[in-house]
């Protein structure tokens, strides 16, 4: 499918607010609480790559969480989105923030920036909306040699995750697809990447937790956090079967691997 048609369809769905995510978010409430707590803490360990430098967010809202401290914010922060509604949300957030990004209505498949302009490019759940064969060369093009990327993305390798996604089509846009091994290899051809994964044992234990506790901060979820963290350390290949991954890495110095 032509990426412009795909982009227009994504834009329309976000502008219309047609996605139905309340029920699935309720289902994963305790697991997601743990996810956000762990994930944002891990992500902040890498934001120094953008501190005092030039940064680009593919999206327009994650900066509020990851660069909330002006002392660690980029010198230049550009945020893009194809949806006017999403940009409006980001702009409203900026009105009450000490950090003042510049927002652009822009397609990530065609970045309107000069070559090697940014030191740090990041995003929250954005790559899986894109045609990576077009978007990855663009991201690499505008990133400086040795520049750093950081993306949080859903994975679609675990059979149970595949089933859940099939059963909840209205929670997603028509063209998005969580990342599989092929996608990770594509990203790895442009960047030397590492993965930190989230939500495996915390999914079933999160459901158990909701039966006994109102709050997500409880012994069951603390145990789930330990399991999710330790098991991917003990069995590294297991990290590909988690629900989400934090993908970090440096731009390859000699161009993409063939």
How many strand segments? 7
Strand content: 15-25%
Radius of gyration: 18 Å
Provide the helix percentage: 40-55%
Helix and strand string, N-terminal first?
HHHEHEHEEHEHHEHHE
Poorly predicted parts: none
Reported by name, the CATH topology is: Rossmann fold
Report the end-to-end length measured between terminal Cα atoms: 24 Å
Give the class-level CATH name. Alpha Beta
Largest sheet: 7 strands, mixed
Would you identify the CATH H-level superfamily? Answer: Vaccinia Virus protein VP39
| Broad structural category | alpha/beta
What count of structural domains? Answer: 1
| CATH-scheme architecture | 3-Layer(aba) Sandwich
Please name the defining characteristics of this protein.
alpha/beta; 258 residues; single chain; 19% strand
Please provide a written account of the structure.
By secondary structure, the protein is α/β, with parallel strands linked by helices. Helix 6 (132-142) packs parallel to helix 8 and helix 9 (202-212) packs antiparallel against helix 10 (219-234). 37% of the residues are buried. The chain has one domain: Vaccinia Virus protein VP39 (Rossmann fold, 3-Layer(aba) Sandwich), CATH 3.40.50. The longest helix has 16 residues, at 29-44. It is 42% helix and 19% strand. The two termini are 24 Å apart. Helix 5 (84-95) links the parallel strand 2 and strand 3 (102-105). Strands 3-2-1-4-5-7-6 form a seven-stranded mixed beta sheet.
Quick structural overview:
42% of the residues lie in helices and 19% in strands. The chain is built from 10 helices and 7 strands.
